[in-house]
Amino acid sequence: MPKHPVPKKKTSKSTTKRRYSSFEKKTQTKLADRIHVVKCPNCGAAKMLHHVCPECGQYKGRQVIDQAKKLDKITKVKA
Fold first, then answer.
1. Within a domain: residue 53?
2. I want to staple 52 with a disulfide (CB 3.0 to 4.6 A). Which of 4, 59, 60, 61 is the partner?
3. Rounded to the nearest 5°, which phi and psi values hold at 22?
């Protein structure tokens, strides 16, 4: 049965953090290239491209989500 490889010396915290930070930077740049955030033409809030605006509920100039119903759900509390 083969033995598992074991490091000869302890890896320092700085080396581990440096390795992780470079991985994190690469991952963030990849995600930044894929996700497109734009301003909503109606209210100016930040929203993802080709998605309904979470603030005003409009998509391509049409009202898709009724904000009044959304407020009713939040304000009603069953005691």
1. yes
2. 59
3. -70, -40
